[in-house]
């Protein structure tokens, strides 16, 4: 019943749907990874989301403006490098920013950051870009700490803990459910 009311009450329908994007009801998960951690997180989120919604998992290197335009919501996932987003993730935003400015306003997003010890710089930078696009953050940034602090540990392949992957899957599921139900 609640679901029915939500679907038929215009005032409860989020900006993406109200703006006529119902035909593009999918979630785009864009990720970059250097040592595998963010890929595992993005895959877990995609697995969580797919039960509810069409979900496209894309490497930042392969994604372009049309991929974002075609989706109703976004999950961005990547590592923190040198206190910021990785160059590849930044290049993705640089490539897409102006082609999409004013065209995706109000759409929901969330972010997952994989970091050795901090992650706040990358999360802040991403949030600033999302603010420029006028996206709406619908889940707080989730930062997974891998405790990689020596050069050897930083360069080694990462294995993300099951509990953290579970949290990523939950975030993906929450994004998908919110989009599918029209509450974003
Ligand atoms: C060049 C470089 C710079 C890094 N800088 C940071 C940093 O500023 N803060 C941090 O918490 N971790 C930093 N790290 C660690 C990575 O964020 C961490 O290893 C993370 O798990 C990598 O995610 P990935 O496996 O998806 O590549 C850095 C790693 C590299 C290779």
TrEMBL record:
<protein>
    <recommendedName>
        <fullName>Flavodoxin-like domain-containing protein</fullName>
    </recommendedName>
</protein>
<keyword id="KW-0288">FMN</keyword>
<dbReference type="Pfam" id="PF00258">
    <property type="entry name" value="Flavodoxin_1"/>
</dbReference>
<keyword id="KW-0285">Flavoprotein</keyword>
<dbReference type="GO" id="GO:0010181">
    <property type="term" value="F:FMN binding"/>
</dbReference>
<dbReference type="InterPro" id="IPR029039">
    <property type="entry name" value="Flavoprotein-like_sf"/>
</dbReference>
<feature type="domain" description="Flavodoxin-like">
    <location>
        <begin position="27"/>
        <end position="184"/>
    </location>
</feature>
<dbReference type="InterPro" id="IPR008254">
    <property type="entry name" value="Flavodoxin/NO_synth"/>
</dbReference>
């Amino acid at each position: 019943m609640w679901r029915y009311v939500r679907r038929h009450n215009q005032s409860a329908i989020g900006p993406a749907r109200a703006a006529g994007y119902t035909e593009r009801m999918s979630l785009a998960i864009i990720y970059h990874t250097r040592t595998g951690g963010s890929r595992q997180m993005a895959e877990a989120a995609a697995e969580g989301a797919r039960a509810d919604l069409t979900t496209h998992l894309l490497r930042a290197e392969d994604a372009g403006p049309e991929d974002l335009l075609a989706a109703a919501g976004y999950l961005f996932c990547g590592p923190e490098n040198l206190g910021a987003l990785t160059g590849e993730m930044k290049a993705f935003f640089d490539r897409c920013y102006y082609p999409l400015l004013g065209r995706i306003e109000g759409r929901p997003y969330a972010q997952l950051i994989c970091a050795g010890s901090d992650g706040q710089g990358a999360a802040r930078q991403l949030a600033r870009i999302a603010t420029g696009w006028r996206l709406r953050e619908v889940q707080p940034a989730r930062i997974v700490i891998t405790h990689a602090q020596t050069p050897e540990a930083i360069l080694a392949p990462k294995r993300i803990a099951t509990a953290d992957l579970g949290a990523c899957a939950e975030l993906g599921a929450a994004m998908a459910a919110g989009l599918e139900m029209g509450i974003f």
